Amino acid sequence: MTTVALKGLLGRKTRAILTALAIVLGAGMVSATFIFTDTLNKAFAGVFSNSYKQASVVVSGRRIVTDSATAPTVPASLLPKIKAIPGVEAASGEFLFDTVKLVRASGQTIAANGAPQFGFGVDTTDTRLNPLALVAGRWPSGGGEIAIGAATAAAEHYAVGDRIGAKGDGPVRHYTITGLIEIPGVSTGSATLAAFDVPTIQILLGKTGRFENIAVIGASGVSPSRLAEDIRPLLSDRETARTSAAQAKAAQKEITGATAILRYILLAFAGVALFVGAFVIFNTISMTVAQRTREFATLRTLGASRQQVLRSVLVESAVIGAVASVVGLALGFGLAKALNLLFKGLPQAGTVVAVRTVVLTMAVGTGVTLLAGLFPALRATRVPPISAVREGAVLVRGRFAGYKPYVAGVVIVLGLLAMAAGLFSGGGPSAVLVPAAAGMLLLFIGVAMISSHVVTPLIKVVGAPARRIGGPAGRLASANAGRNPSRTAATAAALMIGLALVTFVGVLAAGLERSTKDDLSRQVKSDYVVALDPGASSMYFDPASGPALAAVPGVTAVSSVHTDRARVLGASVTVNGIDPRTIGSVYAFPWKDGGDAALATLPHGAIVDSVWAKKHHLAVGSAVSIETSDGVTRTFLVRATYHPKFQAVFSGILIDQTDFDRTFPKPQSSYVFVNTASGVTPALTSALRRSVAGIGEAKVNGRSAWIATKTGSIKSTLDIFYGFLALSVIVSLFGMVNTLVLSVFERTREIGMLRAVGVSRRQLRRMIRHESIITALIGAALGLPLGVFLAAVLTRGMSKQGLSFHLPLLQLGIFTLVAIVAGVAAAVFPARRAGRLNVLAALQYE
Amino acid sequence: MTTLLAPARPRTAHAVVTASGLSRHYGEGETAVHALRNVSIEIEEARLTAIMGPSGSGKSTLMHTLAALDKPNEGSVTIDGQEITDLNDKQLTKLRREKIGFVFQFFNLLPMLTAEENILLPLSIAGKKADSDWLEELIETVGIGDRRNHRPSQLSGGQQQRVSIARALISKPSVLFADEPTGNLDSNTSRDVLSLLRHSVQELGQTTVMVTHDAQAAALADRILFLADGEIVKEVHGSTAAEVLAAMQEVSGR
């Protein structure tokens, strides 16, 4: 029987290939995701973890606050004490992976395209503790010397002996290049490297008397954990001593945490493609089973049991799934390379194809195909043997077919409930996303189940153009689409899912763009906004930009905002230092409790997010304690609260800038608002830009241009989403091709008859094209409203955050056009097949 | 050929299939269609029994009921003494594997299998090994020796039906049911197929029931049952085609 199934599969090669294609893309995405993220992890691991390999123990500052402008450090005075411990063979203070920007002679920073700009201060006398390798020249030594990355040197035409600028948090300093370096075994992408001796980088970073780490090598026979135990009594509660294995593990964990998010996002798209693929496979195998009714009945009369029939269909699904998964795996390899290009600038490493990737791709691809084939396989077992002797035998309706609309209703309601449960759970991202996604899937299944009931009325509407302009071919196409509503519905449902998600994302993005634009226009009043360059590698920019901008002729007011992170009520929170005298003229606060009058009383006070305040039972008059990355703790009194906006200029806590600069170790800027006498003019724009050119990664923009860059970043994210969702639309396209090919095959005789009574090849092709377009339009008619509905639900759930709902009519029109184009594309191959049928042979076809 | 001439079964005329009081109606009450009304027959061993009748007479329903493809509303059917009307799906599968062979009007060969593979299919479904002597004998008997590796699409209609007869015979069933075996063939080919069926009854002792509306076909039968309106109205033995035609006229004219 297995042989029968396999030979049957070989006998229907085109169909099998078209079916397999439906799962290839999904499986490819799964394998690409794992290959890409594994490779990324390896590359990052190569960059970071290797640095600690040689050391036994690493002493570093305890991190109090995440994303702070000041990385934790340890006092240099610890080094001699550690060196004095028996069992320590060597120890050195170092700076690894700090941020140092390289600056051209022109004053421009050498851009890293968003990749890190690494600065190192290493003990060049002890190579065991130096993660870098020298490619050319010699190690820098003394105040005027630097070594830079060999790749950057090549790209920027620097050689040993040249002068180059470098910038930490202070002004640009100039150095002579003594050597070219690399991180052995790792390509760092577009990241830049700069290395100094330790005293030099201490000056550059303003960290004299401190190290980022002290790396310790134990004498032979001393275990790292023992060594760490011996060092710990020397440390205050602001420093930790970890074995290098633990340090590497912690670094690795941080990296895998970041790539895990990327992995989940990519897997979500893979999941969508697989889900759509499952629909296509379900539909194709259902049609194949229906066409093979007599064959199954014959097998039953020859003594095949139900289990044997079930097994034969499942064997087919399994083979299709397995072959598709293998192809998907190979495709994934290529897709991973494409993803690498998409996220260029990241460190590179040799492609990693883990056993887990292979096993998982095979299991998921085959599993989804088997699952999708299970229901049609069960239907095949219900074919009664007597169908072998009946002409035109049709597949019997299942025992429960009558309950289908009710089941669909229950599935839809369950889906909606799950979505509501997610959206109103108030929990973390996984508490919201998991039930919401599950609910969405249920909703899709439910709508797909019920869609066969709306196909007939829908054809009346979406088939009207075909009937009007398509002539007799169009009328036949419209009638053909309605012949088997459940088949048309299932085919359209696959497209529906892709279009619904595209619409969902599109409507959501339109709302996001609209809210961003509205929110920012309402808050920002200044003529110019100076903010961090979106491509910057750091989180903040140099506060020297404020005075520099103020010195430009024509500038009437400048208001700087200093920002850092601090530990507040057990979590890391953003703290902004604002200038209460000037902020009112450039920024409109969305006040909740309080008003502009509160600004006058700001010194020693704080303005906080009203939702955050409510969550922590704070009100005007309450005290808030903040702890900086240095461990400095200060208390402020809440003076006013503001409404959090969806696109907020500020988040977290706002305090007086004088208080801020006194509290935080290294004040950095997040914004500078600039008012001018003459508004925004090109001359002024370039003058302002020139004034901050050498200072840092601040970007000067007119108010509306700045708002446009904010909405622009939404657009580019949206484009990536569209790209990934296009995969599932392509999968549903295979489904449409499949259905049409099978329909043409089923109607061979009828097509022969049509040709015999004078239908031309062109008319025949047009008939099939119109049928395909009608199916695609049904998919659009179901998918677009569903997507709009989903977006409306989510917007409603997030209305408190200020997300507004906006229908992008132009985009919806484009999606409809995409559906029509998809219909035309899907019809090309089947129409050509139908056109090539020999009239006589088709008529005799049985 | 001498081995073929040796009878495979004793020729004592005992009944392989018995039916008593068979009734089959579709629908209920006034609108009910009565396909079979209280039919009782016995199908004798090693005989070719033909069932004839005008369309709608119930001849197909009778055969489907005897072959356990359809269930009667009343009455009982036994094959080799085993009551078959109340068997479950599993028992029916076993019955089909061991006792019943089918020949169809449209051959119902699997297009992806070769002639030989099609013939062996019932055995491979049942998980049994083929007796190669028996296979060779069958292939020779049905005369497709040079085409055993061809697929159905490469065979003529007559060849396909002969393959399908070999397929029905491979498991040496107690009874072979042939549903209009010549219904889709021209008259020359029909003769070949019929003589093959006749041969299998005569020489192999294969009990066979054949539904047909072809007088030529029925004339080859040992016994012809005429059905009209769901009842057996006439039974003749060893007739010529002309006599069969006359009998048909008589039955149809009633």
List the helices and strands and how they pair.
The complex is a heterodimer of chains A (846) and B (254).
Chain A: H1 2-11, H2 13-48, E1 57-61, E2 74-75, H3 78-83, E3 88-99, E4 101-103, E5 117-121, E6 133-137, E7 145-149, H4 150-156, E8 163-167, E9 172-182, E10 192-196, H5 198-205, E11 210-211, E12 213-218, H6 224-231, E13 239-243, H7 244-291, H8 293-301, H9 306-342, H10 355-381, H11 404-423, H12 429-462, H13 464-469, H14 471-481, H15 485-523, E14 528-532, H16 545-550, E15 555-568, E16 571-578, H17 583-586, E17 591-593, H18 597-600, E18 605-609, H19 610-615, E19 623-627, E20 633-642, E21 653-656, H20 657-663, E22 669-676, H21 682-692, E23 698-702, H22 703-746, H23 748-756, H24 761-797, H25 809-836, H26 839-844
Parallel strand pairs in A: 5-10, 7-9, 16-21, 18-20
Antiparallel strand pairs in A: 1-12, 1-13, 2-11, 3-5, 3-12, 4-8, 6-9, 7-10, 8-9, 14-22, 14-23, 15-16, 15-22, 17-20, 18-21, 19-20
Helix pairs in contact in A: 1-9, 2-7, 2-9, 2-10, 2-22, 7-10, 7-15, 7-22, 9-10, 11-12, 12-15, 12-24, 14-24, 15-22, 15-24, 15-25, 22-24, 22-25, 24-25
Chain B: H1 2-5, E1 15-26, E2 33-44, E3 48-52, H2 59-66, E4 74-79, E5 82-83, H3 89-99, E6 100-103, H4 115-126, H5 132-142, H6 157-169, E7 175-179, H7 187-204, E8 208-211, H8 215-219, E9 223-228, E10 231-237, H9 241-253
Parallel strand pairs in B: 3-8, 3-9, 6-7, 7-8
Antiparallel strand pairs in B: 1-2, 1-4, 4-5, 9-10
Helix pairs in contact in B: 4-6, 5-6, 6-7
Describe the structure.
The complex is a heterodimer of chains A (846) and B (254). Chain A has 846 residues and is α+β, with helices and mostly antiparallel strands. In chain A, the strands form 3 sheets. In chain A, strands 1, 3, 4, 5, 6, 7, 8, 9, 10, 12 and 13 form an 11-stranded mixed beta sheet that branches. In chain A, α1 (2-11) packs across α9 (306-342), α7 (244-291) packs parallel to α22 (703-746) and α12 (429-462) packs across α15. Chain A is globular and about 95 Å long. The two termini of chain A are 25 Å apart. Chain B has 254 residues and is of the alpha/beta class. Chain B has one domain (46-68, 88-253): 3-Layer(aba) Sandwich (Rossmann fold), CATH 3.40.50.300. Chain B is built from 9 helices and 10 strands. Chain B has a 6-stranded mixed beta sheet, with helices on both faces. In chain B, β9 (223-228) and β10 (231-237) form a beta hairpin. Chain B is globular, with a radius of gyration of 18 Å. Mean pLDDT of chain B is 87; it is low at 1-11. The chains are: A alpha+beta (846), B alpha/beta (254). Chain A binds chain B through residues 1, 3-4, 7-8, 10-11, 294-295, 298-306, 308, 384-386, 388-389, 391, 846, and chain B through 60, 64, 69-70, 89-90, 93, 96-97, 100, 102, 104-106, 108, 110-113, 117, 121-122, 124-126, 167, 171, 179.
